Structure formats: structure tokens, C-alpha cells
UniProtKB/TrEMBL annotation:
NCBIfam families (UniProt xref): PPR (TIGR00756)
Cross-referenced InterPro entries: PPR_rpt, TPR-like_helical_dom_sf
Protein name: Uncharacterized protein
Pfam families linked: PPR, PPR_1, PPR_2
Domain of life assignment: Eukaryota
């Protein structure tokens, strides 16, 4: 194996394998110990001997390829020295050729030094070396009938294929694999598996499957891992039925199906939004006593989380515990991240506590998810507190976690603390990157401190970080929000000089930020100057108008686009809807909603609530109910807020039957009425009762209304819901206006006994009842109690008292007349 049969290539024979007498003086190496041990081997009878007094490095460079090969083979039992000698020569400018590369490769293969072998081939590939000639040379030393089982050639081609993959040259790697067959021997299945797997990771599943189909032509039999890779490739393509057929191929081949194949299939189902089926398959195989690693459960959990089926994901964790399996860090962290993504922070915390109680180590991914969730919910102070708690517990916090908190501190206006946190990162030798600097720049911009932002920008550049498009967009936004349109446009010109071309996001940021800074005309001019406007540019202009409260302009632009058959993205539509709702433009609301639905842009449940609230405020209950019914008809279940708004609207227009129908409907759907819902319904009944009492024909119906109100009151108490100050005030006001002063007083005393403090509205309601009865003394006493508690009477209170005094005076005058 060590000697080439081609003298034309090497021009040496077996005698060269025997070290020759030393005639060259000293060869200079970086390592003294190495040079001292190597020197006895390098004394050849060459012309260099006459120059032994010359420069040692020059003597080294005068070695030819044959001499280098001879030295390498003499060091074959000392591979580390052979490698060092090879690279010393290369570093000093020696031009290695096919013979020297073949020699070092043989040594590396013999000793199984795969990393060094990979490095040699990788360098050859980058240098565009003639690999084909090298392979010819390496093959010449192997007897033909041993090629099929040559471990030497297996190692050579395995290293070559992997090196091509590392260099991103997949076509060359495939060619090298099939070249083995053309050279008369069969590649190892491990090499095929590696190549197929990396090709799949590179997004070329079809190519990997094509290689699989050619394996038999190469004389190879797939192993269990090969089949798992094929299943993985088919699942990525979405060919799930073909993937299940592979299991039959496994059975026919006699290969024992292992954990890898089962995992690949279940992972494929989950990746294709079929987590329910994937988990059913897992349970079926589990029942068949097929052994599984805990990892497969984390796959199912991740699948359910990606589909936002968080209850089912949690169910997988519970099933694991029932089966006696201990969930690992991956299972917990996947589910916690899912809960955070779904905004279910309490569940995430509960799971975190469970994780800690069972001794499962918390990682920075879990911490980062919780911190990010807190910030997404606007709970920046809580995020900072949690960060400090985790840090005090000694939990490792990575650069991502630090960046989240730096951003939170910036949003809280605590820039000094944000800077201190970045300094702490430097002390801990953590790598600050472009993301951290950009976050801090954004913090300064949000505070309007453009000088501070620019200083950070300059520091970032001095540290060798080149600003990216995101950094420039942040700066441009900061300029625009301060009304510095000229500076923002100047920044765009500067970007171009730095080979950073402004993109659509840059344009959108400038449009929206100019509007936010009150520079609407400048924003319009910039927008009009954009050539080939995209739909996102129009969306930015609509958003900008909304931020500047130019809702009419935003609405007109939206209508113009919709008439052309275009619809801006959902978030833009929702911004416009929100503005229309705030301004009470009901016609615009309904028109926009109709166009959105016609173009399959579905508002969120939250947005539906805003629309219904706006229509209800305007007293347009008919259209509010149409929107409510549309919400239900599109598969979205109204929540308690939606129901309560509709019930309140019906109560306000004295449609108690419709209000009660909705009340019963929400309970039928499993939505439990809360205190606000009961208060709204009680208020509706009280006001309906007052209207009947004050009507000329008040004898009929009063008892029925009173009974209905008492029924609601009883149901509320039976539900365990205790009235608050607002609820008591509603009841006291109703009884006072219905001339049921005694009941009003009882309720007033009851709330005080329960430790609830009446507010000015409560006092005014009872004071009105007293005055209505002519009980001025009691009214004055209530006024005195208010002053003792520091509650200042308002115009409503004093007006009620004045009317009471006047009424009492009239009654007194009438009595005197009777006398």
C-alpha cells in the first residue's frame, strides 16, 4: 500500500523507504524538540551538501518531491511528526504535488486521523487541485481484487465526500460517490448516509432520494439509518404515503427497524401539521412495545405547539408522566416556549415551577422565552425583575436574554441601566454583536436622544461592526420621529456610499415615522417619489395617516386600492378599523369590514370586539348584532366581553328579552357570566322597572320586573360572585329611583359591613332617594359623611340635594295650606 507501482509518478523504489546517511546540515523548524528528533533523518547525499553552511530554510526549500516523500514515509510510525513536517514545508512555500499529497494521505488513512485527512482534502478543494489525478495515484497502490473491501480507499473517498460537502460543493460530492463505482469498488453505506442527510439539510430532498434509488446499482444495501433518512426526505416533500411504504421496504430487506425510522416518520407527520395523527401513531407503536426515546415525545409536543394546540401538547407531557417517563429539558422547554408564544404566561410559570421541583435544569432558551413573552405583553418591568431573579439563582443567561432586557430597559426609559447591562456583558466576556448595539440605538431614538444614538453608532463602527439595514432603519426612524426629514434622507444617501441599499422596509419606516412626527406632507412627498410602489408602501402610507390621525385620508387610500382589487396586509386593515372605531365612523367601519371579508382577510376576535363596541356606543345595536352573528358564523366563539357588550346594548334600548336570550346562549356555550355581566343585566332590569313605575300604566309588569331582577341577583350569589362597589351602586340607584328607599338603605349598609367603601356615585344615588322622599336630614347627614371621608360633592350631588330641599319646602308649604 505504501509504494506506487508507477515510477513515472514517483521515480523511486523500495530502497527509498530506508533512511539514507545525513549530509545536509540542519533543517530549521519552529519546534526545537521536533527539529532535534528529525535532523538525523535528513542527511541526503545531494548537491545541497556543499551548501550546508548556507541558510537552513533555503536548504529545506531545495528538497524535491522525491526527498519529501522519502522523509514522510520514514516518519510513517510517527504520524504527528509527519503531519507537522508536511505543514512546515507548506508554510515555507514548498509546492506539494501529487506524490507528496499521496504520501501524507496514506499515512493519515493508516492511522485513522480523519480530521487531518479532512483538512488536507478541504485545502485541496479550495485550491482547485486536480483531485482526479490524486485519486488515480492513490488507487495504483491497491491490488485490483482487494478494491471492493479496501478500508484505505473507503477512508479516502469518505474524507473527500465530506470535504466537498463542507465546501458546499454537493454536485462534486455526488460525483465522487459514484466515481467509486466507476473505479471498481463499492463505497461504504455510512458515506452515502452522510451525503444524503446533508443534501436534505441543504433543501434538496429530491436529490437525496435519487441517490437512494441508485444505491443498488452501486451494489449497496441500505441500513436502518438509510431508511430513516429516506423517510425524512419523503416527509419533507409531503409524500407521507410514500414514507409509510418505506417500512414495507425495510421489512422486505430483512433490516431491523430501529428508533430512527419511527422517529423520522412521526417527526414528518408533525412537521406537516398532522401532529394528531403523529401522536396516534406514536401511541399505537408504543402499544406494540416498540421502544422509544423521550425525544420522540418532545417531537409531538413541538408539533402541537407549532399548530398552537397547547392543551394537546400539555396532554402529551401528562401522558409521559402516567407512563412513568420523566420529561427532559427539551420536553419542558418546548412546551414552555409554546405557552409563551400563545401568551399563556401563567401556564408557562406553572410548568417552569414543575420543572424546577423535579430537578430538571433550566436553560437560557426557557428563560429567553419567558422574558420575551413578558415584553410582548408590555410587562417590561416584570421582565427585568425576572431576569435579575434568574441571574441571582445562578442560571446561565445568554446574549439573547441580555438583549431582551436591554430592549426592555430602553422601553422603560432606563438607558443608564441598559448601558450598565451591556458593560456587564463585556466584563463576563460575552460577545456583544450588532443586535445589542442596534437595540441600544433604538432605545436612544425612542427617547428622542439622537446624540446618544449616534455615539453608540460610532462606537459600534469603531469596534469593527458594520451597520446592517436594520441599524440604518432604526436610525432613520429616529430622525423621522423627531421631524428631521432632511437628516433621514441624508442617511439614505450615506447608506448607499456604504453599499447598503435602502429596501422597502426602509421606505416604509421613513413614511410611518414622518407621519408619527407630524410631518405628513414630507411623508406624502417621499411616498410619491418612490418608483414602482409596492403594496407594502401603500400600507405604510395608510399606517402613517392613522398614526397622524388623518383617518379620512387613510380610508380614501384604502378604498382606492380595494377598487383596484388590492388589499393591504391584515395589520394595516386593523389599524384603519381601530381609527374608524375611535372616530365613530360607523359607515366606514362596516364598509371596510365588508371589503376585508370579501377578500378573505379575517379580523381577529379582539378586532371584532372593538367593532362591536364602537357600534354599540353609537347605539347601532342592529349592525352590532349583525357583526356579532358574523363572528359566530365564521367559527369564532364570542368571548365574555363580546357577550357583555351586546347584553348591555340591548338593556340600554330596553330589549330585555334579547339580552336574556344572549345571557342564556353564553351559558349554553360554557362561558360563565362574570360580575360585569351580572351588573349590566341587573342595571337593565332596574332601569326597565323604573320606566314602568313612572309610566301612567304602571300597575302591570312591575312585580314581574322585580322578580326578574331578583332572579338575576340570586343566580349571581349562587355562582359565588360577590358584588363590588359598582354593582351595589347600580342596585342602590335603581331602588332609590323606584322609591324603594328602605331597600336602598339596606344595600348601602350591607356594602359598608362587607368592607366596601362607597364612592361619590354611591352617595349621590342614596342621597337622591332620600331627597326624593323629602328626607333632607338624612341627605344632609350623608353629605356630612362624605366630607369626613374626603369625598367632595360634585354638581350631581348638590343638584340632587337642592331638588330635595325644594321638594321638602313644597311639601311643608302644602301642609300649611291644608291647615
Amino acid at each position: 500500500m505504501w509504494v506506487s507501482s508507477s515510477r513515472s509518478v514517483f521515480n523511486f523504489n523500495r530502497k527509498l523507504l530506508t533512511p539514507k546517511p545525513i549530509t545536509i546540515g540542519v533543517v530549521l523548524f519552529n519546534s526545537k524538540s521536533f527539529s532535534s528528533s528529525l535532523c538525523p533523518l535528513i542527511n541526503y547525499s545531494t548537491a545541497a551538501a556543499s551548501n550546508s553552511d548556507g541558510d537552513p530554510q533555503q536548504q529545506l526549500l531545495q528538497l524535491d518531491s522525491f526527498e519529501v516523500v522519502d522523509i514522510l514515509y520514514s516518519l510513517k510510525k510517527q504520524p504527528s511528526r509527519a503531519v507537522s513536517f508536511f505543514y512546515q514545508l507548506k508554510d515555507r512555500g514548498f509546492q506539494n504535488d501529487v506524490s507528496t499529497y499521496a504520501a501524507i494521505i496514506r499515512i493519515l488513512c493508516y492511522w485513522g486521523l480523519h480530521r487531518n485527512l479532512h483538512s488536507i482534502f478541504f485545502d485541496l478543494i479550495l485550491a482547485s487541485f486536480d483531485i482526479s489525478l490524486l485519486l488515480d495515484t492513490l488507487s495504483e497502490g491497491v491490488v485490483d481484487d482487494t478494491k471492493k473491501n479496501s478500508s484505505f480507499l473507503f477512508k479516502v473517498y469518505d474524507a473527500l465526500v465530506k470535504s466537498y460537502v463542507s465546501a458546499g460543493k454537493f454536485d462534486e460530492a455526488i460525483d465522487a460517490l459514484f466515481q467509486m463505482g466507476r473505479r471498481g469498488f463499492v463505497p461504504h453505506i455510512f458515506t452515502c448516509n452522510f451525503l444524503m442527510n446533508r443534501i436534505i439539510q441543504n433543501g434538496k430532498s429530491d436529490t437525496a432520494l435519487a441517490i437512494y434509488k441508485q444505491l443498488k446499482r452501486l451494489g449497496l444495501s441500505p441500513n436502518d439509518y438509510t431508511y430513516a433518512i429516506v423517510i425524512k426526505a419523503l416527509c419533507i416533500k409531503g409524500s407521507l404515503e410514500e414514507a409509510i411504504d418505506v417500512f414495507k421496504d425495510i421489512e422486505d430487506s430483512g433490516v431491523t427497524t430501529t428508533y430512527f425510522a419511527y422517529t423520522a416518520y412521526i417527526e414528518g407527520l408533525c412537521a406537516n401539521q398532522k401532529s394528531d395523527l403523529g401522536y396516534q401513531v406514536l401511541q399505537a407503536w408504543k402499544a406494540a412495545n416498540i421502544p422509544f426515546h423521550v425525544y420522540i415525545y418532545s417531537v409531538a409536543i413541538r408539533g402541537f405547539c407549532n399548530e398552537m394546540k397547547l392543551d394537546k401538547a400539555e396532554g402529551v407531557l401528562l401522558d409521559m408522566e402516567k407512563e412513568g417517563l420523566v420529561p427532559d429539558m427539551h420536553c419542558y422547554s418546548t412546551l414552555i416556549c409554546g405557552f409563551c408564544k400563545g401568551g399563556k404566561l401563567q401556564k408557562a410559570y406553572a410548568l417552569l415551577n414543575d420543572m424546577m421541583s423535579k430537578g430538571v435544569k433550566i436553560n437560557c432558551v426557557v428563560v429567553g422565552s419567558i422574558l420575551h413573552c413578558l415584553c410582548e405583553m408590555g410587562m417590561h418591568s416584570e421582565a427585568v425583575d425576572q431576569f435579575n431573579q434568574y441571574k441571582n439563582l445562578g442560571i446561565f443567561l445568554d446574549e439573547v436574554s441580555y438583549n431582551i432586557i436591554v430592549d426592555a430597559l430602553c422601553k422603560l426609559g432606563k438607558l443608564e441601566q441598559a448601558v450598565a447591562l451591556l458593560d456587564e456583558m463585556k466584563v463576563k466576556r460575552m460577545d456583544m454583536d450588532l443586535m445589542h448595539y442596534t437595540t441600544l440605538i433604538n432605545g436612544y431614538c425612542c427617547q428622542g436622544n439622537l446624540v446618544g444614538a449616534y455615539k453608540v453608532f460610532e462606537e459600534m463602527r469603531e469596534k469593527g461592526f458594520k451597520p446592517d439595514i436594520i441599524t440604518y432603519n432604526v436610525l432613520a426612524s429616529g430622525f423621522c420621529r423627531q421631524g428631521l426629514a432632511t437628516e433621514a434622507l441624508g442617511l439614505l444617501d450615506y447608506m448607499k456610499t456604504q453599499n447598503q441599499k435602502p429596501n422597502a422596509i426602509t421606505h416604509n419606516v421613513i413614511i410611518e415615522s414622518l407621519c408619527e412626527g407630524g410631518e405628513v406632507k414630507e411623508a406624502e412627498a417621499f411616498f410619491n417619489g418612490i418608483k414602482d410602489k409596492s403594496l407594502d408602501n401603500y400600507a405604510a402610507m395608510i399606517n402613517g395617516y392613522c398614526r397622524a390621525s388623518h383617518t379620512t385620508k387613510a380610508y380614501k387610500l384604502f378604498i382606492r386600492l380595494s377598487r383596484q382589487g388590492h388589499i393591504v396586509k391584515k395589520s394595516c386593515c386593523c389599524n384603519l378599523l381601530k381609527n374608524l372605531c375611535e372616530e365613530g365612523n360607523n359607515d366606514g367601519i362596516l364598509t371596510l369590514l365588508k371589503k376585508m371579508l370579501a377578500l378573505n382577510v379575517e379580523p381577529s376576535k379582539f378586532m371584532y370586539n372593538i367593532i362591536i363596541a364602537a357600534l354599540c356606543r353609537a347605539g347601532d345595536v342592529t349592525n352590532a348584532r349583525l357583526v356579532f352573528d358574523n363572528l359566530s358564523g365564521r367559527g369564532l366563539t364570542p368571548d365574555i366581553i363580546t357577550y357583555t357588550m351586546m347584553i348591555n346594548s340591548y338593556c340600554r334600548i330596553n330589549c330585555l328579552q334579547e339580552a336574556h336570550d344572549l345571557f342564556h346562549d353564553m351559558k349554553r356555550r360554557g362561558i360563565k357570566p362574570d360580575l360585569v355581566t351580572f351588573t349590566v343585566l341587573l342595571d337593565g332590569h332596574q332601569k326597565a322597572h323604573i320606566r314602568k313605575v313612572r309610566s301612567p300604566d304602571s300597575s302591570k309588569g312591575c312585580s314581574e320586573d322585580a322578580f326578574d331582577a331578583s332572579t338575576v341577583w340570586t343566580e349571581m350569589k349562587n355562582s359565588g360572585i360577590r358584588p363590588d362597589v359598582i354593582c351595589y351602586t347600580v342596585l342602590i340607584d335603581g331602588h332609590s329611583k323606584a322609591d324603594n328607599l328602605q331597600d336602598a338603605k339596606c344595600l348601602f349598609n350591607e356594602m359598608i359591613e362587607r368592607g366596601l367603601e362607597p364612592d361619590i356615585v354611591t352617595y349621590t344615588a342614596l342621597l337622591f332617594g332620600c331627597c326624593n322622599r323629602g328626607d333632607v336630614d338624612r341627605a344632609v347627614d350623608l353629605l356630612y359623611q362624605m366630607s369626613l371621608k374626603g369625598i367632595q360633592p360634585d354638581t350631581h350631588t348638590m343638584s340632587a340635594l337642592h331638588r330635595g330641599i325644594l321638594k321638602a319646602s313644597n311639601l311643608q308649604f302644602q301642609k300649611l295650606e291644608l291647615l
